[in-house]
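Re: the pair you flagged

First of the two:
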Amino acid sequence: MGCESSSVKSAFFLLLCFLLGTASAQLSSTFYSKSCPSALSTIKSGVSSAISSEARMGASLLRLHFHDCFVNGCDASILLDDTANFTGEQNAGPNANSIRGLDVIDKIKSQVESKCPGVVSCADILAVAARDSVVALGGPSWTVLLGRRDSTTASQSAANSNIPAPTLSLSGLITAFSNKGFTAKEMVALSGSHTIGQARCTTFRTRLYNENNINATFATSLKANCPSSGGDNNLSPLDTTSPTSFDNAYFKNLQIQKGLLHSDQQLFSGGSTDAQVNTYSSNSATFMTDFANAMVKMGNLSPLTGSSGQIRKNCGKVN
């Protein structure tokens, strides 16, 4: 049946074709249940192994998925190395000297390929690894919808313009997330991912030495490891209380002006999101639920499905 008709049936045909098109573009939690039944357990095992070696890796894998999805959708474009045809995303401002976990994803991919060659996409591996990382560190679980395919190109310029910067104001954060379809509430929930992980001195030095809405004792402790010049890559935890536990301590820290990044403290600085921070600080379960729901939504950002894109054999290069 062709998707065209000049008869009175045209409206019906158009509706049917729309529904078929919509259905083919849907992701599904059971996408690999027949084609690669061991995919999810293989990914989980790889993530668990990596995190047991280094707890920080959980935050790094979560961040990879976020930085992938915010740049032209969840298509594993962040994993592509530069080629003669395009400059990839790994050396864009938000990623240079800071994205980690590429080797973990490569290792998981090779394990999955050995069981089901050419079936499971790198984009899906990133999505599942992000969920498994959060769970491994004590956070909520969610059902990852699957069926994403991998891009055949990447864009450094899109990475530079789409990934929210740590210097953003509250209005800038709200706009950056709104551009991807998220509400301010979802933005605050997703920011709670900073309950795990580390940040480089260069990303918070200006706040440390120039801003007043920072706890004085906290600032003094940070300055020892983040001098006013030099030490750009020295690390400090985003959540000073429990940096390898996925909990709501991040929001409690914001209430006492212990947000590490400028963008963190902007969420609790007399603005429209203060109330949401208070809610998550006092109700961990609400935060966990909202975070999980927002992660499902993020994983649905513009996936390549059907015959679009490809299933890369090696996550770092196009087939």
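Second of the two:
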Amino acid sequence: MLACCRGSGISDKSADEEGFSVETRNFAPKHLLIKIESFSSLGWNGVEKYYESREFVAGDHKWKLTIHPDVQDIRRPFTDSMVSVYLSSSVETTLPVGWEVNAMFTFFLFNQIQDNYVSFRGKKMWRFHAMNPKWGFSKLMSNQSLTDPSNGYLLHNKLVFGAEVYVIKSPPVIEHVSFPRNAQCKVQVLVISHFSRLGHVWNSEEFTAGDHHWKVMLYPNGNGSAKCRGVSLYIEYVDCGRHEKVMARICMRIKNKTESLSHTKNFSEWFSSTQRNMGFPEFMSVADLQDPEKGYVVDDSCSLEIGISILALVRDAPN
């Protein structure tokens, strides 16, 4: 059972400043419990003025808890010293470069009079990574409140701290989006020989433009609803990854023996794994293409010119 914590020496101002909420509950912390005896010995006889816990595991990651029971604010030397508590990711050599862990955490103090636990729950998600592997609260409570016997935390020189850590395991979807400057147009010329012998569709060999692989499909007598009426011309983005997208400007041309009369159409569109093929079901009429007076098919050969400019690229972030 959770309840708001009142009258236990915890400052509402500190809670607001530090970004945690304070509640009480009857059951012990799930991930770590530290029982400190002879608490007053911290900082005496060569003992460090803080305590760092052993490693513990939560959310398949290793953590440590560090307790500083008597921290003086040097900017306000005449105020009460504070209790500071921090959670740190126990960095291992096995963690990959650029690692990060997103987690929420709660610190606990056992109230030995009330026989319950006071929880200090962070109000936000914390991002642990190599540059900042430690997070916590510099002003959990005043040292005076911690050591006041009437508050129930420190009795018979014994004190109990605890911690729970909840890791957000589902990684976010991260896309890298780039817009190449001064996009260059790569022009690929494709010659179709023995045009009169073509079947339903002609497929080009793969070719490269903008470090990507493409191929062209031409249906000399049309495809689908355009069959026997329009020449269908499409381009396919061959090597598209599952979450990859490419914005490309495409210029498609069936060349004429008189260059100025070549038939040209343009479009700009996103290519992706779910939209690899794009083009024109009726690029031009079948009659015009096959008319020898028009000059598109010469000596039973037809020439295509495909221009590709990469305008934008979206890829998954590297692991």
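The longest strand covers residues 301-316.

-B.
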